Amino acid sequence: MSDSTSTLIAVDARRARQERRAKSEIRGPKRTTSDRVVAGASHVVLTIWSIIVVLPMLWTLFSSFKSTGEIFASPFQLPAEWSFVNYVNAWEKHNFGQMFINTVIVVGVALVLVMLLGSMCAYVLARFSIPGSRAIYYLMLAGLTFPVFLAIVPLFFILQGMGLLNTLPGLIITYVAFALPFTVFFLFSFFKSLPYEIQEAAYVDGASEWRTFFQVMLPMAKPGLAAVAILNFLGLWNQFLLPVALNTDQGQYVLSQGMAAFASAAGYEVDQGALFAAVIITIAPVLLVYIFFQRQLQGSVSQGTMK
């Protein structure tokens, strides 16, 4: 065998070993028995938890198509007739249509305001060295630790003095105030991690501070904005204590108040079918938002933690 042939065989053997090594690295380390046990136990726990969460929701959905008598007679059977009469009664007879509109107005306006004000505040605190900026940031963090129920009495008298008690604008202002610390805290790290070179390039091109913020920096923080907007929507939509304490006018009720009042109105004389339909009306927007934006939320949070 010639030297050239031996060299080729050696090169081929070395290449084969490198390819096997590369494939093994791609596949990752071999899973041990303990890894398989942990993975199996995790899947079992997640399966049980999914059943605990999904089954009550399905039962509520099926019950929303039943009459009160059918719910008590056969609570775990499918509806004998699929009718939307319960949804019509809940929407019109029990005024959940107006409460749904009130909730959309309050949450929608509050969400826009808190995202605008929160992003502006976080941008200034993260990108500019101004006197007292660190103290303001820590005060914002302190707002996250302040229990809501301790502020109910002062808020009541403040809104009463401003003439905003039992009004939707009063609720909007209150929602913005309580959601602002979380928004600033969440967006602070996103704006802090953005490269300063891009901001300086915008200044060189003649962009003002406002244009730099809205057209350059704000789009770059889109992952953080998407995540905090979704989380704020979920929190504001499910808010209960603030509207119950600060909004006692039934014409201005939001969905969380309406559900509590409807469920406790007359004990067992409540229209159970309409009650379950009202529950679906209340939770459906939250479920739809999470279903459609869960991938964006997960990607936003993971991107924020990697920066």
Descriptive keywords:
single chain; 307 residues; mainly alpha; MetI-like fold; 2 domains; flat
How is the secondary structure organized here?
Layout: H1 3-27, H2 33-63, H3 68-73, H4 85-93, H5 96-127, H6 133-145, H7 152-162, H8 168-193, H9 196-204, H10 209-220, H11 222-237, H12 241-246, H13 255-263, H14 272-306
Helix pairs in contact: 4-14, 5-8, 5-11, 6-8, 8-11, 9-10, 11-14, 13-14
Give the gist of this structure.
The protein contains 14 helices and no strands. It is flat and about 70 Å long.
Account of the 3D structure:
This protein has 307 residues and is mostly helical. The protein has two domains: 3-73, no CATH class; 85-306, MetI-like (MetI-like fold), CATH 1.10.3720. Helix content is 78%, strand content 0%. The chain has 14 helices and no strands. The longest helix is centred in the C-terminal third of the chain and has 35 residues, at 272-306.
